[in-house]
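Our consortium's second objective concerns turning raw sequence data into structural hypotheses that experimental partners can test. To show how far this objective has progressed, the report includes one record in full. It was chosen at random from the queue rather than selected for favorable results. The single chain below, 239 residues long, was entered without modification.
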Amino acid sequence: MIIAYLKLEVRRTLRDTGFVVFGIGMPVMMYLLFTNLGENASEWKTASMVGMAAYGALGAALSTGGGVAEDKALGWLRQLRITPMSPRQVVTGRALTGSVTVLPAIVAVLAAGGLLNGVRLDAWQWVALSVLLWLGALPFTLLGLGNGYRLSAQTTGVVNMACNLGLAVVGGLWFPVDLFPGWLRSLSQYTPANRFADLGWSTTLGHAPGLTTVTVLLGWLLVFGSYAVISYRRAARTA
């Protein structure tokens, strides 16, 4: 049951023109713009590649909530209630969908870095970078789902956009955190977006992510996962 549901949601998402343009094309354009204005060192092109890949994955993950909100308005949740799937299974199926749909955004930015900006990494680093960013996007998918189950379709879009921009900027996905004031630099280290990108930054430097990065991400995974399940249960009762 959950596999069939997963296939259905993946097909629906990848047929969305807006997702393809803004979820995949926009991070690539921003990456090329940020790294080709003036003189830019190869280190910045690599760091920005990771940041923009994380930004694209973040946006794609959150966008899963928009589909949820639309389904809720159309009565899809009422149909799910008569299936044998539990709230955790429904949320897991949607989360897996989001995990699949973040891959095109990640791959597109990494390809731009390697093919257009001359970023050079070992083969294992490219593979590890893709896999870690793919897995690390799961907390944001759950955040988007929680918003979609709890809010209306229009409000979900606005809130997800605010989350996307806020987390990306504070997390240092657009600009190095070294440019931040001291207090914001300290705060940034505990935000999910910063620790998410650190999965990639650590890989490009040739070492595994630190314990703090893994611990912070797991903490946010628990928070956002609980939020998504609670929001679904509430929506299912009122649908």
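The partners drew two points from this record. The chain is about 80% helix and 0% strand. The mean pLDDT is 86. Both points have been shared with the crystallography group to help prioritize constructs.
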